[in-house]
Design brief:
By secondary structure, this protein is α/β, with parallel strands linked by helices. β3, α5 and β4 form a beta-alpha-beta unit. The longest helix is centred in the first third of the chain and has 21 residues. It is globular, with a radius of gyration of 18 Å.
């Protein structure tokens, strides 16, 4: 196996609902449940490949527009993961960090997230960012608002605003930008997935639905990234 050169991998996990419909399940939640299993496997595959940073798109700001029942079921699934499956993250050495706009989330959900982050704080094998209630434009807008407030309150001098200063106001402050983004499910767009942090990322699209994603497909994407860098002479 060739040496991995991806430091930070982003994954848009698309296709859970279509997978459930293809398999004729009565509820799309069967697809989301299978998607969680694949996501947990992905963490192990990233460790096997020597990838130290992983960011996944779990729930976008646009997902709030889905039916109230599906949103409720998705957050029940999220709670089960953070409560019942967090021990697997600890066993694998995965440090969990959630990023997003929590204004519409319940205080109980926020507490569960904080607890999961706390108990995995000392894990060092994989730095995992889970985008929950996340939208890239929303993140940039919130960062600009926080910067403006700091200027008003005198916490910063309001001089020339640099990229480095602005990045310190993003959810991902201190985390390197993404090198490669994989999107499953057939669509060829980023769908508001970290526009600032993916500016120079290479993009890999596959028609495979997320629940069917595999370690072999991850290796295909990593090989694609290596070939792109070789062709560019990097």
């Amino acid at each position: 196996m060739a040496e991995n050169t991806v430091r930070h991998l982003g994954v848009i996990m698309d296709g859970n609902r279509r997978w459930a419909k293809q398999h004729m399940f009565a509820s799309v939640m069967r697809g989301h449940e299978k998607g969680v299993d694949t996501f947990i496997d992905l963490c192990e595959w990233c460790e096997n490949a020597g990838i130290p940073y992983l960011t996944v798109y779990a729930f976008s700001t646009e997902n709030w527009k889905r039916s109230q029942q599906e949103v409720s079921d998705l957050f029940k699934l999220m709670r089960r993961f953070f409560v019942d499956e967090i021990h697997r993250c600890i066993e694998m050495g995965v440090s969990v960090h959630c990023v997003g706009n929590y204004e519409r989330m319940s205080e109980e959900d926020r507490r569960i997230i904080r607890d999961a982050e706390e108990v995995t704080r000392d894990c060092t094998k994989l730095y995992l960012q889970i985008a929950l209630s996340y939208g890239g434009r929303d993140e940039i807008l919130k960062a600009a608002q926080r910067y403006a407030e700091d200027v008003r309150e005198g916490r910063t001098d309001g001089g020339t605003l640099t990229e480095e200063v602005f990045e310190s106001y993003l959810y991902t402050a201190g985390v390197p930008d993404m090198d490669l983004v994989i999107r499953t499910g057939g669509d060829h767009r980023l769908s508001n997935f970290f526009p600032w942090q993916t500016t120079y990322a290479d993009l890999y699209f596959t028609d495979v639905l997320w629940p069917d994603f595999s370690e072999a497909l991850l290796q295909d994407a990593l090989e694609y990234y290596r070939s792109v860098k070789i062709n560019k002479g990097k």
